[in-house]
């Protein structure tokens, strides 16, 4: 990474979210001194005119597009219209404004849910658009697929350098611990924490416990994002097919939900029984990323699951009031 790169004006969209805040932490630790952020009150990413005016004013060099409406199975089932509309609008507004204001480098952050429900495991980048999506989060997945194709289209038509990374399931500091709208790790960390405080003898987990999932600490995701953004163009193009397409980001290892729950029980000190409710949806049977492409580009995850869960749990305990809202 050059000294010139550290002085570029870098806009992190979604800096208050778990991923965006981790990217800001990563850039700051590397000595970046021109990081640009705006909260929702200062910049409405759903408003095309506001976004265009912001880019016209700021002379931005790089964009990390981490802003998104996110949630777990329940939230995706209950609010499908909001998930597809808001994500489509945020992505389209930022990518078009970046192009219109001659921003050459942008990194779009997607999701592993872009792949078909029954994709061959581990899921390779080439699996995109080869089968039916998981119904519970299809609107969100379609929006993320559109983001990839936006980047590819601007690259092809205007020779931009807009890259896409597809993370596996993320967790860590800054996660959403809402009792209904959170993902599996924050939901279970909160549930086990509260059960331990109450002295409960049992915790019931949604689903059968059999589905397998891969989990990546958000600080690893931030490190991977900065790594991919700063690869020189020939190196990046050599390892992506088609040119400037998306790259999976994950650990390359997975576990069952039951095994995850057992580890979270250990981390939170819960000593009771674990039960499962098979009447609740399981989602896809397995979601493991093939991360060989990213490995060939010189990056691999470094934070193990138990260590990462301890870090996430410490953050939750320290930020209890804001995490619960």
Layout of helices and strands:
Blueprint: H1 3-6, E1 10-13, H2 18-29, E2 35-36, H3 48-58, E3 62-65, H4 73-78, H5 80-100, E4 105-109, H6 138-158, E5 161-167, E6 169-171, H7 184-198, E7 202-206, E8 212-213, E9 215-217, H8 218-229, H9 233-238, E10 246-249, E11 255-256, H10 257-268, E12 273-277, E13 286-287, H11 292-296, H12 305-318, H13 320-324
Parallel strand pairs: 1-2, 1-3, 3-4, 4-5, 5-10, 6-9, 7-12, 8-13
Antiparallel strand pairs: 8-11
Helix pairs in contact: 2-8, 3-5, 5-6, 7-10, 7-12, 10-12
Task: Give an overview of the whole structure.
The protein is of the alpha/beta class. It has a single domain, classed as 3-Layer(aba) Sandwich (Rossmann fold). It has helices at 3-6, 18-29, 48-58, 73-78, 80-100, 138-158, 184-198, 218-229, 233-238, 257-268, 292-296, 305-318, 320-324, and strands at 10-13, 35-36, 62-65, 105-109, 161-167, 169-171, 202-206, 212-213, 215-217, 246-249, 255-256, 273-277, 286-287. The strands form four sheets. A six-stranded parallel β-sheet has the order 2-1-3-4-5-10, sandwiched between helices. A three-stranded mixed β-sheet has the order 11-8-13. The chain has a two-stranded parallel ribbon with strand order 6-9. α3 runs parallel beside α5 (80-100). The longest helix has 21 residues, at 80-100. The protein is globular, with a radius of gyration of 19 Å. The two termini are 38 Å apart. The model has no long low-confidence stretch (mean pLDDT 93). It is an enzyme of class 1 (oxidoreductase). It comes from Halopseudomonas laoshanensis. The record marks 111, 113 as: Important for catalytic activity. Substrate binds at residues 191, 206, 213, 282. Residues 10-231 form the NAD-dependent epimerase/dehydratase domain.
